[in-house]
Amino acid sequence: MSKTKKITWNVGLIAALLIILFILEQVLPSGSMLFTVLKKGAIYALVAVSMNLLNGFTGLFSLGQAGFMLLGAYTYAILTIPSASRASVYQYYNGGIINFALPVPIALIAGGLVAAIFAFLIGLPVLRLKSDYLAIATLGFAEIIRAVFQWDKLGPVTNGSNLLRSFPTFHSVLYPFIVSGICIALIVLLINSTYGRAFKAIRDDEIAAEAMGINLAHHKRLAFVISSFFAGVSGGLLAMYQTTIQASMFKSAMTYEILLIVVIGGIGSVTGSCISSFLFIACSEWWLRFLDNENLYIGSFHVPLLRPGFRKVVFAIVIMAMVLFYRQGIMGTREFSVEGCYNFFQKRFGKKSVKKAGDTHEQ
Amino acid sequence: MDWISRNLPYLMAGISVGGQYALIAIGYTMVYGILRLINFAHGDIFMVAGLLLVYSATVMPMYIAIPLMIVVTVIIGFTVERVAYKPLRSAPRMSIMISAIGVSYLLQNLALYVTGGLSQQYPAIPWISDTITIFGTTTKRVTVITPILTIILVVILVLLIKYTKIGMAMRAASRDFETSQLMGIKINSVVSMTFVIGTFLAAVGSLLFFTNYTGVTPTVGAMPGLKAFVAAVFGGIGSIPGAVIGAFIIGICENIMKGLGLTTFSDAFTFALLIIILIAKPTGLFGEKATDKV
Fold it and tell me: Do B101 and A260 touch (CB under 8 A)?
C-alpha cells in the first residue's frame, strides 16, 4: 500500500465517521443514551491516550491524571463563565475576582497549559522517583490539588467547595470528537517522531537508553508535561460535558477508571485506548442498565437479585474477568490501521487466489 | 496546664488514629515486601470488615459477632489472593496491580449493592465505646486502648517473623522471591499467610477505627487505606517497624492539622509530607537502599 493511498484511506474513514455521527444526530432523538456514550467516550479516549503516553510509551507509572483533569476543568470553567452570571455563581464570594470571559478554544488551551505548568513544577522533584514511588507521589499530588481547590480562602477564584456552573457547553456530539481527534492525532505524531522513539527506548531499558545518549530527565519531563497538557484539555471537555463541576468529582477513583481503560485497551496501543474507552463507558452507562431494573421478566420468570447497583457489580466482575483472562487487553501493543486490515484481508482472501493460480499452473 | 488540656484531645486522637493506620499499614507493607504489589484492595477489605460487623451485630450477640467478623474477613482476604493475585504471579507487575484495582472496584460496588448506598450505623461495642475522662478530657475508651493493642500486636508479629519457621520463610521471600522458591520454600503458603496476617490486622483495625466514627459507607475504606499505604511508604515499604512509626507520625500530624483549624488540608498535608520524604529519602525512613544492577 502506497503512502498516499494510506492517507486517502485514513482521511476518508475519518470523514465517513464524522458524517455518520452528523446523520445520527439528525435522525435519533437528542436524549438517546448513544450520544451520552459517544460524548463521554470521546473525552475519556483523550485522557486514556494521554495516560497511555506516560504508562505505555514512556514507562512512567503515574497516577496523577485526575489532578491534571481537575486543573484543566477548573481553568476552563473559571475563564469562561460569562461576566453576567458571575454574581450568581460566586454568590458567596461577591462575584469572584475575575471579571472577564475568554473564548472557548483559548480557555481549553489555557486549561491544558495550566495543567502542563503544574506538571512541570511537580515533575522536577517527583520524576526522579522509580515506579511505585512515582505512582504514589503523583496520586498524592492529585489529592493535594483537590484539597487546595476546595479551600475557602481561594473561594474568589475557585468558588471553594461549591459548584461552578453556567460556563459555555457543547451540544453537538461532533465537538468532543473533533477536539479529541485533533489532540490524539498530535499525540500519535509525537509517538512516531524521534521523541516517541526515545520514549519507547526509555520504557524498554532506562540504562541502555541513557547509554545511547538519550537525556533521561529531559525526555521524562517532556512526556509528563505533554501528557498532562492533554489531560488538562480533556478536563476542560469533561467540564463542558458535565455542565457543572466540583473538585470532589476528581477523586483517585477517577484515575483508577482511566487506568483500567488503558489496560483493557492494551498498554502501548493508542487505538486500543480509544476503543476500550467507548466500550467501558458504554458498558458502565448504557448496555448494562437493564440490570438495575427490579421488574425484569424473561417470559414469566422473575429474574432475582436485580436492583439498583447490580449493574455495577456485574460490570466489576466483567472487568476482573478481562484483567485475569485477557491480560494483553483488546489490542495488546498492536494498532488498528487501514494497512493492517488491508493486509489481513489480503492474507485471508488474496492468498487463495494466488494459490489457485499456482494450482492451475501445475495442471 | 491549660495548654495541655486544650491540645491533649488532638494528640490523643492522633495517637489513636495512628494506631489504626498502623494496623492497616502492616498489611500493605508485608504484601509489598513479598510480592512488590500495592494491594489497592486492602482499604476496601477494611471497609468490608466494618460492614460485616454492622450486619452480624444485628442478628447475634457481640461476643460471637466480633470473632465471626474477623474470621470472615480473613477468609475474604485469603480468597482474594487466591483468585485475583495468584494466577498473575508470573505476569508483569502492572497486571497484578490492575487486578488489585479491579478487586477494589468489585468490593466497593458489592458494598454499594448490599447497602443501597446508605451509610450504615456502626454498632456500639460494649466496654471499648464507653466514655472515660483522662486529665480533664473526655474521650472514648478505644482511644486509649488502640495504641496499646497496636503495640502488643506488632510485638507479637515481630516475634513471629523473627523466631518462627514461617516468619523466616517470609523474610527469605521478601529478600529474594525466586531464590527462596529454589530453596524449597512453599511460596504460595507464605503469600497466603501474609494475606491472612494482613487482613486479620485490618479487621482488628476496622473494629477500632469505626468505633470512633458513626457510619460505614462503601467508599469509606479508600482514604484510610490510602493513608495507611502512605504511612507504609513513609516508613520505608517492606519494613514493619517503619510502617508503624510512619503511621503514628501521620496520624499525629493529621490531627494536629485539624487542631490548628486546617481540616481541609489534613489529607493534603499527609501527601505533601510523603512527597517531601520521598524526595529527601527515596526509599522512606527505614527502607533498604535499592541498587540498579546492569
Answer: yes
